[in-house]
Amino acid sequence: MNVNKVILVGRLGKDPVISHPQQDVTKADFTMATTESYKKDDQWHDITEWHNISAWRSTAMYVERHLKKGMLVYVEGKIRSGKYTDKNGVVRYTFEIVADTIQKLERNERISPDNSGVQTQEGSSQPVESNENLPDTQFNLPQSADDDLPF
To answer: What is the pTM of this model?
Structure first.
């Protein structure tokens, strides 16, 4: 049995780029950073990995409507690799995560429309499955999870 499954929790490095490679097909591309922290010799060190994420169809439409640079998100999908030769003749390898499920892990803070400065929160969002026939599932973190995340 073979399994190609990736689960990431991290922050968007920039706003998603939305495209329409075919009529009625939406694609979203964005970068995501995951950071691992460890302690060595009484000092904390961070290792940050950057991931290229792509989402298609309904998942891409969710990304377009709800995700922005800096947001904390849960991504579940599979790894795809590619290979190309750059203009200098050097063979380069690429890796991307093709997302099946994306979940925003924080609420949006917004300034009220009357500009009074009062902040309001949008409701929580549900994960989006690429296969629309699959049931929605909820990804819940404990209330204190933000304090335990290394980023």
So the answer is: 0.69
Using left for φ > 0, alpha for ψ between -120 and 50, and beta otherwise, residue 150 falls in: alpha
Task: Kindly tell me the sign of the dihedral angle through the C-alpha atoms of 51, 52, 55, 60.
Answer: positive
> For the chain, what are the domain ranges?
6-144
| DSSP symbol at 122 | P
Q: Which helix (H) or strand (E) holds 39?
A: strand 25-40
Q: How far apart are CA 22 and CA 100, in angstroms?
A: 19
Sign of CA dihedral 8, 54, 59, 61: positive
Torsion of CA 1, 77, 148, 139, to 10 degrees: -100
Render pLDDT for 81-111 as a digit per residue (tens, 0 to 9).
Answer: 999 999 999 999 999 999 999 999 987 655 4
The correct CATH number of 6-144 out of 1.25.40.880, 2.40.50.140, 2.60.40.1730, 3.20.20.370 is 2.40.50.140
25 alpha-carbon distance from chain centroid: 19
CA distance 99 to 24: 19
115: left (phi over 0), alpha (psi -120 to 50) or beta: left
